[in-house]
Design a protein that fits this description.
There is one protein chain. The protein has 471 residues and is of the alpha/beta class. The protein folds into three domains: 155 residues, Rossmann fold, CATH 3.40.50; 239 residues, Alpha-Beta Horseshoe (pyruvate-formate lyase- activating enzyme), CATH 3.80.30.20; 56 residues, Nucleic acid-binding proteins (OB fold (Dihydrolipoamide Acetyltransferase, E2P)), CATH 2.40.50. It is built from 13 helices and 21 strands. A hairpin with a 3-residue loop joins strand 20 and strand 21. Helix 8 packs parallel to helix 9 and helix 12 runs parallel beside helix 13. Bound molecules: S-adenosyl-L-homocysteine (SAH), iron/sulfur cluster and FE3-S4 cluster. The site of S-adenosyl-L-homocysteine has 17 residues, from strand 15.
């Protein structure tokens, strides 16, 4: 049993890790043939992508995917720790599984992802959710076959969580959710330690994948017919810093842009590491989508300092406007937290004025949620939840109005849309524009997913646009 330990998770001393090739232990191949699994994924794109690896490992074990936990022999929760409601959702699901297991004794339940890295969660599972068969951490996901097998064979709860990141495994199997767009990890972990955030504890320090491994994966995806690649990392802008003296995200983007791939995206970017070279490269290549997710978190420099974000309102705005000037037609989306400890009405009004000035193309807004053992959870917080909810509502009104205004300006224009799906109505499709807006549109011609077609915008809504394919 390896339980998580926060002190270890926090340390960032220089440690060597090795790049290793994953190989599937043949003893487990098809061992559970005929059994079914259901995986529930919470949280960010990185978790979604981890679930693609986890699913592939389970399928090598012989499990077959089903679309309801009620039908499954194995239920795996790939969890997220970012805010309390993510926790609550996972514990709510564990509650339902507890009932189910009373009727179906042979059901196997596993928990992995970020919550597995939290000591308090593991203690709660040991105390109140004894029926859970295994808990597996984010750093040793590749051990799923043996941990799951041990749990079944021994019929005892397995807890295997490394608090320190281990070696970096290449070549994990993957079953991708889509046949035309794919996620590619470029960097794991985060070294920023924003004072409110749990990610550096659950995902470890920054570790970049070697460029050769990334480029090889992308070449394979191109060969397999993929049309869009999203480079993933908690902070993709830090790419390469731990490996190379002179090779960063700008260089990587440029190398990928020269390949025959129609769409390249990347997320998330921390404003701190955004270099001019990166901005130049994004502006230069038409297959790098002009769409940047640039979380601001707050419009008040005083709060940004308390958050440990390493930039001010002014330097954020400077970067924002530089991007608008240097990347033609760029869309910029953001994340904002309201109700950070100590945020007063004046600070909040600064966030409101920044949101008005930036007119973000999309914004994810949250109420601050205290996370275990993060510095911010020890700060004094005198603002009532009611007041925080009121701020969130006022902010949402401003950002939503901004989306609608921007969308209205697009009426009559033609945008390039990558078809993602067919809607239930006849001749109706949906997809995303280069700047990442959801477009619902009609087409007389039959279209396939992954195709990129011109669409004339006819109607604007807050969250989407309607149009007609002009081909
Ligand atoms: N790595 C990304 C963010 C990952 S988490 C970045 O730094 O940009 C996604 C978003 O969740 C954050 O941008 C932040 O707005 C929000 N978030 C993170 N921790 C939070 C907390 N404790 N309470 C509320 N929101 C939080
Ligand atoms: Fe969290 Fe900050 Fe790292 Fe983003 S940059 S994952 S908000 S610590
Ligand atoms: Fe959540 Fe972990 Fe992602 S905390 S947001 S799943 S890195």
């Amino acid at each position: 049993m390896h339980k998580p330990n926060y002190l270890e998770a926090r340390s960032r001393d220089k440690r060597d890790y090795q790049r290793k090739d994953f190989s599937f232990d043949s003893r487990y191949l098809e061992k559970y043939k005929g059994k079914t699994y259901y995986i529930k994924t919470y949280g960010c794109q990185m978790n979604e992508h981890d679930s693609e690896n986890i699913s592939a490992l389970l399928e090598k074990l012989g499990f077959q995917r089903v679309d309801s936990y009620l039908k499954a022999d194995l239920v795996l929760l790939n969890t997220c720790s970012i805010r309390e409601n993510a926790h609550n959702k996972a514990f709510g699901m564990l509650g339902r599984l507890k009932h189910l297991k009373n009727e179906k004794k042979e059901l196997i339940v596993g928990l992995c992802g970020c919550m597995a890295q939290e000591a308090s969660v593991v203690e709660r599972i040991l105390k109140d959710y004894k029926f859970v068969n295994f808990v597996l951490g984010t750093h040793n996901m590749y051990q799923l076959p043996e941990v799951l097998d041990q749990a079944i064979v021994d019929n005892s709860m397995q807890i295997e969580v490394f608090s320190r990141e281990g070696d970096l495994y290449e070549g994990l199997p993957v079953v991708r959710a889509n046949s035309f767009k794919a996620y590619v990890n470029i960097i794991y972990g985060c070294n920023k330690f924003c004072t409110y955030c749990i990610v550096p504890y659950t995902r470890g320090r920054e570790r970049s994948r070697r460029k050769e491994d990334i480029l090889l994966e992308i070449d394979q995806l191109i060969q397999d017919g993929y049309k869009e690649i999203t480079l993933l990392g908690q902070n993709v802008n830090a790419y390469g810093k731990d490996l190379y003296d002179d090779y960063n995200l700008g260089d990587l983007l440029e190398e990928i842009a020269l390949k025959d791939i129609p769409r390249i995206r990347f997320m998330t970017s921390h404003p701190w590491d955004f270099t001019d070279k990166m901005i130049e490269v994004i502006g230069k290549y038409p297959n790098i989508m002009p769409s940047v997710h640039l979380p601001v978190q707050s419009g008040s420099s005083r709060i940004l300092k308390l958050m440990g974000r390493r930039y001010t309102r002014e330097s954020y705005l400077e970067l924002f406007h530089k991007m608008k000037d240097m990347i033609p037609g760029v869309s910029i989306s953001t994340d904002i937290i309201v109700g950070f400890p100590g945020e007063d009405e004046e600070d909040f009004l600064e966030t409101m004025s920044l949101a008005k000035e930036c007119q973000f193309d999309n914004a994810f807004t949250f109420i601050f949620s205290a996370r275990d053992d993060t510095p911010a959870c020890r700060l004094e917080d005198n603002t009532s939840l009611e007041e925080k909810e009121n701020r969130l509502q006022r902010l949402n009104e401003v950002v939503n109005e901004g989306f609608l205004n921007k969308h209205k300006q697009m009426i009559g224009k033609t945008v390039q849309v990558m078809v993602e799906g067919v809607s239930t109505k006849k001749n109706q499709y949906y997809g995303y524009s280069e700047t990442n807006q959801l477009i619902n549109f009609s087409s007389q011609k039959k279209l396939n997913v992954g195709e990129i077609v011109p669409v004339i915008i006819e109607e604007a809504k807050t969250w989407s646009l309607d149009g007609k394919c002009s081909e």
